Amino acid sequence: MSQSSETIAAFRFGLGFSRVTENAYSANDLVQQTRDTDIGLSEFPGVPLKNRTELLRRYAKLNQERKKTGTRSQAFKEMSKRSRLLQLEDSQRIFNRAVFNPNSFFERLSFFWLDHFTVSPKSRTGQVVWGDYIDTAIRAHVGRSFADMLTAVVLHPNMLFYLDQRVSMGPNSKTGIRRKRGLNENLAREILELHTLGVRGTYSQKDVRQLAELLTGLTINRKGMVFDPNRSEPGPEQVLGRTYGDDGPAELVDIITFLHDVARHPDTARHIARKLAVHFVSDTPDPDLIAAMADTFTATEGDLPSVYGAMLDHPGAWVPLGGKAKQPLDFMISGLRALGVQRKDVAGISPRRAARSFITPLTVMGQPLRRAPGPNGWPEEAEAWITAQGLAARLQWSLIVSKRHGRAIDPREFVDFALRDLAGESLRFAVSGAEKRAEGLALVLASPEFNRR
Amino acid sequence: MSLSRRAFLTKTAILGCSAAASPLITPVTFASVPSDHRLVLIVLRGAMDGLHAVAPIADPLLAKYRPTLIKTDFADLDGTFAIPPELHDLLPMWRSGELAFAHAVSTPYREKRSHFDGQDLLEAGKLEIDSRLRDSGWLNRMLSLMSGVQQETAFSVGQEGMLILRGDAPSTSWSPEGRIDLSPQARLLLSVIYDKDPLFAEAGRAAMTLVEQMEIEAAMAGDELDEDPMMANAKQAAKATDAADLAAFAAGRLREDTRIASFSIGGWDTHLRQARTMRRAMGQLSAALVRLKADLGPVWSKTTVLAVTEFGRTVRENGSKGTDHGTGGAMVMAGGAVRGGKVYGDWPGLGETDLYKRRDLMPTRDLRAYAGWAIRNLYGIGKTEVETTVFPGLDLGEDPKFLL
After folding, report:
1. Using CB atoms, which residue from B5, B172, B197 is nearest to A429?
2. Which of the residues B181, B183, B209, B262 would you substitute to probe the A interface, choosing the one with the greatest number of A C-beta atoms within 10 Å?
3. Do A442 and B182 touch (CB under 8 A)?
4. Rounded Cα gap, residues A165 and A212, in angstroms
């Protein structure tokens, strides 16, 4: 089956063909998306961190009162509701931005990086700041250098909370001695193993330990990240062969210096290149493609748009589609875009209704939002997603959205629009043979052609 | 690779024939199943208060610790322990020896008392928390030691696949509210679309088989299938948390080729007005067990149900007539295969110095040892495998002999 480069671009690097936004297809246009202003963010702005921490502060205060008195005041209930509502709004915003941003490659990259730096909040605090993490740590750095993104991520309260950095302190630091507490290696380990060098990278348990000591001053307070010198382990730390914090306990600048060093490490270049290629192209990408991307990563000191460009300029990135499956979030968004949903149907509905229409189906399809199984994120293999329950959920949702949004669409025309040259003959026959319009549309959305990429 | 119209029509016709013969899509059948024993794992999320569910009423300290929580309407089990009214529907099972409890048990989890970590450790079956904790669950690792395991051998029931079954061994995840409101004709067309893609063909076949079994069960039960999927979905989402439905679906599978099923019941985090907040959760557990027994019919005699929770709750009631996160707690065993009518375990006592950190019920046994002995006796899993692969770091110890 022949596949045009436009189709490959739309499925592999975008969120399918859309009736409501422009579509970009060329390598240059795609890379340009990551250098331009974040349209998703400017059209659907998020809530700043200080509003979120203020909400948390007020909640904590009322919660203390609740514990003391044993009764839930009206103000407590109200604040509880507001924090829940904020989370629903954050979830809805993900859909708003991805469906209506013409820069689909940017949106896909933001999903990729959100997964690379997975945070599955365990507590109310984490849940409430999660939306800001997307805006200021992830999206703001999709088109910047890897070092910048890494630094923003590691210093964000969301990550510090999730990987237990807030409880880690130098065993010989002032606070450590006073409270008889010590290191928690979680963040240090995941930085090396997942975020930068990769599990096959060249580092040892000693590096993990030393990095954990280096990070000890990092913690959070009610306003966000803070560096607390009283928690910082005294003495220099040697990580990956370089010494940090020669003069007295490490300071924030030493941590940032380390993050910039590790971000430029050749193992990091290979790990990131490989992960991008596996996510976008194939579970077994052309080694030459990975090498080209890693070389560019190293040559540009991790300039991400250049790395994306190296991928898009390589013939190995344009092999035929079909080896991978869209993850549920990609599937739902590309489905909504193909059906041409209007803003009023996505951004215009209440957060509660958006949760029912989008977030619940996402859960049933196996990808509950912000609840990735672990810091290593969602699986890449198609087999993890195309299961009995996963496929049934895709089918049922396809039918529901087809009834809701496809009243004016002819299924035979929809097949051409949504799949172009990808549609196999059996699919075309099946669609033309469907008894009901909605079923015809649903067959397209649930087809292997639409779900694979 | 393109399919001619003629070939397509022929194909549809063939499918049409088999469809007319009864099942729309031939159900997958399996040559062998690994064992005849059924195991149901219920995860009680939120930390069940073991001292309320299986209250040591003979100990006068209990009423002192819990002046407002312990009432006279608890039903005596054995002169030492009693169960609250919400569990009284289970008394017939207790009397017929199909219900037992183990007390003063816990996972190896200590100190931080986070639900999230506690449940992960419970389902992962590991000794301690590390970054790979959520890679696999203990039921899945147990399956990897059994032969003849198929996709249908084990079921995770409910909207979210459960960690306890996650891993490399095959299992199926399904939610009883899962439905596909496609006409029979569209289902046929779908099977044609999926025909050339083995992954989709397999998943599609399994999904359709499940959906059809459920439709048949619903039709036989006299339920009317709702015509409007939106309405039906909303309705079903509303009752998706009904544990009896999860139990009924699990029972339906266990009557067939499924041997292992797992689902969860939430609502146990009773910090506030426990007498009221725990009522619903206990009602759900009770209804699930009653439903399992009723729906399993003769298979109940080969069934072992274990209901476990991430940790217990504080011995003392708190300032808001509830209890806070604790350590030792209770587990529930039910089924025809269980040697019931007994509360198992070494009782540590409630004296101040008997408590864990002077606050919680002291755990006297790893709850994984009970689960470990269950899978040893039910499925013949070797001692070493139990102590390394399924429950790393576990000392199985002596067989509590809670199975017949």
Report:
1. B5
2. B181
3. yes
4. 9
Q: Is A132 exposed, middle or buried (0-12, 13-18, 19+ CB in 10 A)?
A: buried
CA dihedral of residues B220, B223, B224, B228 (deg, nearest 10): -130
* φ, ψ of residue B310 in degrees (nearest 5): -70, -35
Distance, in Å, from the CA atom of A358 to the CA atom of A334, rounded to the nearest integer, reads: 13
Q: What is the pLDDT of residue B158?
A: 86
- Contact status of B217 with chain A (Cβ, < 8 Å): no
CA distance linking residue A347 with residue A344, whole number of Å:
6
Distance from the A212 Cα atom to the nearest Cα atom in chain B, whole angstroms:
15
Closest partner CB to B204 (pick from A66, A391, A400): A391
The answer, yes or no, to whether residue B271 has pLDDT greater than 90, is no
Q: Chain A interface, mutation test: which of B114, B177, B196, B199, most A Cβ atoms within 10 Å? A: B199
For residue range A414-429, what is the model confidence (pLDDT) as tens digits?
999 999 999 999 999 9
Return left, alpha or beta for A25; rule: phi > 0 is left, psi -120 to 50 is alpha, else beta. Answer: alpha
Q: Where residue B31 falls among pLDDT bands split at 50, 70, 90?
A: very low
Contact B229 A386 (CB under 8 A): no
A396–B319 CB contact, under 8 Å: no
pLDDT at position B377, please?
A: 96
ipTM: 0.94
Mapped to the 3 state alphabet, what secondary structure does B210-226 carry? HHHHHHHHHHHCCCCCC
Predicted TM-score of the model (pTM): 0.83
Low-confidence ranges of chain A (pLDDT < 50): none
DSSP 3-state of B286:
helix
Q: Give the nearest partner residue to B210 out of A193, A388, A396, using CB atoms.
A: A388
| Contact criterion met (CB < 8 Å) for B186 and A435 | yes
How large is the C-alpha radius of gyration of chain B? 23
